[in-house]
Structures are given as structure tokens and as C-alpha cells.
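Q: How would the C-alpha cells look for this protein?
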Amino acid sequence: MSSTRTLIRGGLVITAADELHADVLIEDGRIAALAAHGSDIAAGWTAERTIDATDRYVIPGGVDAHTHMELPFGGTAASDTFETGTRAAAWGGTTTIVDFAVQTVGHSLREGLDTWYAKADGVCAIDYAFHMILSDVDEHSLKEMDKLVQEGITSFKLFMAYPGVFYSDDGKILRAMQRASANGGLIMMHAENGLAIDVLVEQALARGETDPRHHGEVRKALLEAEATHRAIQLARVAGSPLYVVHVSAEEAVAELAAARDKGLPVFGETCPQYLFLSTDNLAEPGFEGAKYVCSTPLRPKEHQEALWRGLRTNDLQVVSTDHCPFCFKGQKELGLGDFSKIPNGLPGVENRMDLLHQAVVDGHISRRRWIEIACATPARMFGLYPQKGTLAPGADADVVIYDPHARQTLSAATHHMNVDYSAYEGRTVTGQVESVLSRGEPVIDRRAYVGRAGHGSFVPRSTCQYLN
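A: Here is the predicted structure in C-alpha cell form.
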């Protein structure tokens, strides 16, 4: 690690807690000190590298706690590798991802985790960590959960959806929750009633309803709410905390709010696609709607206000991307004539920080809440704080210089994700990443990529920091 000192002068430092005009001193890859701009202390600082942040925001690097690089799914695999995906993340102001290692049915957690270690090792532009997907809950995998927690893999994802692929029944979910209750792990849940959805899929296809828009129609909001409710009750029985991923529907938010009103350790995440896109996109003419097929699905526009309200009231705490890109040509097209065969997933790791800044501009959230839901809370939720998610002495120097006045148009022609379309094609947003440091090393320098594959390190995590 380089021992050079870097000084960021003249910017507005924004964290989840504070906004202050401060200079930031970085040494040995960490934040060494902050001092008021123009103060005697700051004036006395010298450094080999000085970054002028006048009229810019200085913010912590984003923490995207839900990505799927190179995920095998539906007979193909997500188009971003750990190399391309982490580079794109850096372009978008994200400096840490938490990706999902997958247990294959009939195989151990260890095998799945080692496979993902190998995929990411030596190629990431930014730091990374892993959650573990449990596809096969049995005595062996339950014991392995304890070992993984000790290794810094402290969260485990289960699916109430996708029968025959990732699905776990309520008994398996309860056993995993009981184990997490004992070992301190956090259970993450894909909450949709997959068995009921499969019936509706079969019936829709039998009626000849094959277009992408029917993907949204069969995956009903009530079946997301029902599964969310069931997951909450199972967690209560197990005495376990629960984190519900990619919440998309007003009814599911209501279930989370009711649980939190009882004081239960229940948390919710939503994603930019549910805040900015809708079933109107799924219904785009021809096969265009396939670009927007993800699960949980996009909802009618009227759900968006409930999600924004949930983010303001803290019934939803985190915005992640669920970045899982598939090219329109050759991958999404696998579902031509049968929406159920369209690979589920959207690209977004590069767009999250900018879209959420647009939400600040639009008045949905405050600047500090932007940093809270995109940096600080995901870091706390998954045991990375204060190493990640804030700008404070001792924290990793993951720093973004952000131009809040720049205008940009989101497009596949200019993005860096390895996918042939943008879910936000043609959308103009205010705000753009100018420079990015990862552990003090420049990755993006005034809109030029200067990072390298292999700079990113695996980060072991402690347990969820919202639990006693």
C-alpha cells in the first residue's frame, strides 16, 4: 500500500450524520483527519497529491449490498464479470459491493463460496464481500453457517421464489433462521410466493399470454406481501432478524412497517428500478419490455410513492441495485414467445448513486439520507461500518468527489456495464461522479478510469450492527 498523503480541499463533506465544509487528509489508505476548510489546522496540512473539491460534494464511496456478478441463471449467466462490474461500480461512485456466492443443491456451502472467491480474486477494481445463498438447507449446511460467520460471511439469503432452483420451504427457512439466531447471522429473504406464482405463470402461458408484461402480472403484489408477512412470522418464531431484499410493492412495505412498529428486528431494501421504473416499461412495444424483467417485478407507478415514503420514515433502510445484467441480444431473447424464460435481472450498479442524487434534487430525500441509504446503512447492516460507509478518522479512504451540478444523460452508449442496453436510456439526471478513491488510491480521476483489476480486496464482515 502506498504511503502517500492525499489532501482533498474545499468540498462540502456529506455523511449520514453531518454536512460540513471541510478538508480531508488521507494517509496510508485511510482517513487521517478532517478539519474545517480555512482553519489553521487544515492550512498546515501538506500532501503529495491535492484534490480541489471546490463546489463539489465529498462523500463516502457507495456500498452496494446486493449485486450478482457472473451469476448463472436460466441457462445463461449475468453479463458483468467481477472485473467489468466492479469497474462500472467505481464509475458510478460505488467503492464496495457485497455479492452473492451460491450453494448448488447437493453441494456444500464451502464449495459455492470457494467458487465465488475464485471468480473475484485478483480482478476487482474495488473492495468486495460476500453473502451466501442457501439452496439446500440440511444438517451439514446448517453447521457450515457457523463457520462462515466466523470467516466474515455473516448473511445468508433464502428464496421463497423459484421452485426447483433456489426455493426453500417454510421448514427449511425456519431451520436456517434458528441457526442464524444462534450464530449472529442475518437472514436475507427473497419474499415472493413462488409456488402460487408458478400456477399463475402456467395459466397465463396456457391462455397465450407470452409477452414480457405478463411477467409483472403473474408475480402479484399480494404474493410479495403474503411472503413478506410469512417471513416475518417465521423470523419471530425463530427469534431471528430478517432483511427483506428488493421490496417493490406498497403492500409489502406495509408488512415491514407493521413489524417494525412492534419493535421487531425486521429490515427492508428497495432498488432504483422500483423507484424510477414501472409496469409501463414492461409493457413497451414488441419485446422491449424484456429489458425490464426482474423479480420482484416492476410495479404500477402508484407503488413508487409508498417506497419513497418508506425510505423517509425508515421502514425501508437500504437502496441496493440487485445488479444482474443480461444482454438484450442473445440473453433476454431466450424468452421470445415465453416470458417465463426471460432471464430475470437488470443492470444498475453504475446508476444507483446518480439516481438517488436525482431523488435529492427532486425533493424525495435529503442529502444526508442519500448517504445514509446508499453508504452508511448498508455498511452497518452488513458489518462493514465504520471501515466503510462514512468519512471519519480511521475509516478506509473510499471517497467520491461528486459534482452536484453536472447534467448527464444515462445511456448504453456511455455506460461501463458490460450489457447492451440501459434500463434508464435517455434519462437526464443532475449530478455526476468526478473522482473516486478506493483506500486512498485513485480509481476514477476527473472522469478518467485510472484503476486496475486486482486493487479490490475481499473484506470480511462482522455481524449486523443494528442488533444487540
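The chain has a mean pLDDT of 97.

Residues 100 and 131 are 5 Å apart (CA to CA).

Upvote if useful.
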